[in-house]
Amino acid sequence: MSTQSSPILSVLTEDLLIRVNEKLVQDSDRKIWRLICKEFHRVDSITRKTLRVLHVEFLPTLLKNYTNLHTLDLSVCPCIEDGTITLLLHRVDHSMWARNLKFLNLRRANGLKFAGLEMLVGACKGLESLDVSYCCGFGDREAAAISGCGGLKELRMDKCLGVSDVGLAKIVVGCGRLVRLSLKWCMEISDLGVELLCKKCLELKFLDVSYLKVTSDSLRSIAALPKLEDLAMVGCPLVNVVGLQFLENGCPLLQKIDVSRCDCVSSSGLSALIRGHNGLLQIDARYTISEFSANFVECMQELKNLNAIIIDGARVSDTVFQTISYKCRSLIEIGLSKCTGVTNMGIMQLVSGCVNLKTINLTCCRSITDAAISAIADSCRNLLCLKLESCNMITEKSLKQLGSHCTLLEELDLTDCFGINDRGLERLSRCSRLLCLKLGLCTNISDTGLFYIASNCSQLHELDLYRCMGIGDDGLAALSSGCKKLRKLNLSYCIEVTDKGMESLGYLEELSDLELRGLDKITGVGLTALVIRCKRLAYLDLKHCGKVDDTGFWALAYHSRNLRQVLNRDIESGLVSIEVLFFHV
């Protein structure tokens, strides 16, 4: 960092510098900015509102420099414990950071207990949002500490396995202003806790009780919430049609409901819900209803504002699609994964009326052919996401239509679509806004097809080439040149890839998640070339890469400071590092 500012900076006021700094959106740009000179670093320090910390040893210095934070994310800094909080709060020059904090993420902070949490809550007087999900050791004492956040509006406690009705009672009494609450997988919470929650927290707009052992009595309590808009109750096996009938006459503002994997919920229960809430915007009933009853189809005609319906695993018919097409013209998302009865004609009927669809999931709808995809491409010109995994009858003709009409497409899943070839990828490459492309098990594509994608899809963030045997070093060279923003890449069992390909991947500076399983031609030399440049690598799969030796792992440990997980085992030779290796460097 320069010790003196350039003379030209003397004419720039702090206000102007702040305005320039606010224009920097990318983290890499902000990093370069604060390294230019001390003044730029100071401006960055006073304007930064969000901080995500990877290494606990840097935390004291960072919090000393950034005292105006609104959001602090410690979810990837798992070594937080009571002693860490004591250190941060009992240094006068470090305690300022807590004063303005509004949002705190402590996911997976399993080392933090009651004493540290109580100190933290006491210091962050203005805290409005707290996430302690996956703190599996949290119990009622920790819940009591959280209850000290009187101004808390949002609380996520997913998988806090020790929290019971007693702990929940303390929270709802102390945090009566809660607007959003997630209790997913808090297995000790019962109908009693939910009942007290619904009496005390009348401002709730979002509630998640997924995977709890609650019964329909809880839905009787929830129905009394006057402002509830979004209810998630995934995997609640004791909730049945009676519970949904309670909701029929309650929750007047309800807009979204998720009853996925609720085994005792039927189409008649959903019909009752719809009758009382014809203003519903989203219904998620995946793997819940086996077949649509005539009554349910009739009720759906009232859902004129519905914009998303997910019915994965259900038996459907062309009549259902016809009803949706005529009556639900506001639909922007439909999920039909593993549905039986999905035909070309049904899809054609659907998209003829629902021309605003942006997300369509047809995973494992094996009767679908190019005719259906052509209809989708022709009608849904604003399509953003299309999932076609295991739709084996589609060919390059489908990709030609998508490339011609759906140029806004951002996500496409073609996993196990073996009718896709290089010529199809050439046509698809016209979708230059693609962010995510999955081509796993597409055995008829090669480096040539990958070259087309790399040449035109420069925005690509995620690419899956699992078991694409025709992909080799030349394809990776094209990829590293054209897709500089790639963050996630799966090359597992692309057996033609060698160290030369690893060297090419080193130029993907944004790469954070890489799967190389089964690449028996790469060695420690290739891994070293990769990790020297890929500084952001966080997840790496090296299982069955038998030729990668200790030199590669030494380079990995030395250069990959952000690495969080390595999967590695050579089953044949037994030479290996560790099945799951965590680095805290």
TrEMBL record:
Signal peptide: none annotated. GO terms for cellular component: SCF ubiquitin ligase complex. Residues 298-481 form the F-box/LRR-repeat protein 15-like leucin rich repeat domain. InterPro entries: FBXL15_LRR, Leu-rich_rpt, Leu-rich_rpt_Cys-con_subtyp, LRR_dom_sf. Gene3D superfamilies: Ribonuclease Inhibitor. Pfam families: DUF7885, LRR_6. GO terms for biological process: SCF-dependent proteasomal ubiquitin-dependent protein catabolic process. It comes from the Eukaryota. This is F-box/LRR-repeat protein 3-like isoform X2.
